[in-house]
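Field log, afternoon session.

UNIT: design team B
ACTIVITY: writing a sequence onto a fixed backbone
BACKBONE:
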């Protein structure tokens, strides 16, 4: 690993001439700036820094942590709001299912055989001797084939 060091601006300042001992030089009142010494001084606008550069590292870290907390709170508030909406929708679905089940039971009771017979008797349409309730079976159940009691002649229906 190599380390490269660049010369600083102070290294470019022209050396001050030193007079030999015993020789007196006249002190100058003003030294004219040379191009190398001019670069060492900063122009007025160079001391300005950006807004972020003027804020200390501690303040930057506090701002970042506060922003993260605010974003976290905002996210959890949105999630909670969505959960409340889902809960309300679930309650509404349960109420609708309950209302549907009530309607189904009411309408199925209207078409029960005993209700039909009672209404037919009220209209003097039928006078049954007895009402037999047939046991309910599932529509998914496979029914056995019917058994015939009797004789059926075997003959073709088509003539050749």
């Amino acid at each position: 690993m190599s380390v490269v060091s660049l010369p600083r601006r102070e290294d470019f300042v022209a050396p001050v001439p030193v007079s030999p001992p015993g020789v007196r030089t006249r002190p100058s009142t003003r030294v004219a700036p040379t191009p190398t010494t001019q670069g060492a001084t900063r122009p007025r606008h160079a001391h300005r820094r950006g807004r972020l550069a003027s804020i200390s590292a501690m303040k930057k870290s506090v701002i970042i942590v506060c922003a993260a907390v605010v974003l976290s709170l905002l996210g959890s508030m949105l999630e909670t709001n969505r959960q409340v909406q889902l809960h309300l929708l679930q309650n509404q679905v349960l109420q609708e299912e309950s209302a549907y089940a009530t309607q189904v039971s009411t309408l199925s009771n209207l078409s029960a055989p005993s209700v039909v017979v009672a209404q037919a008797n009220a209209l003097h349409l039928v006078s049954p001797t007895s009402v037999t309730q047939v046991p309910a079976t599932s529509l998914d159940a496979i029914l056995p084939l019917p058994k015939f009691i009797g004789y059926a002649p075997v003959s073709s229906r088509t003539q050749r």
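LOG NOTE: The mean pLDDT is 78.
NEXT ACTIVITY: expression trials, pending approval
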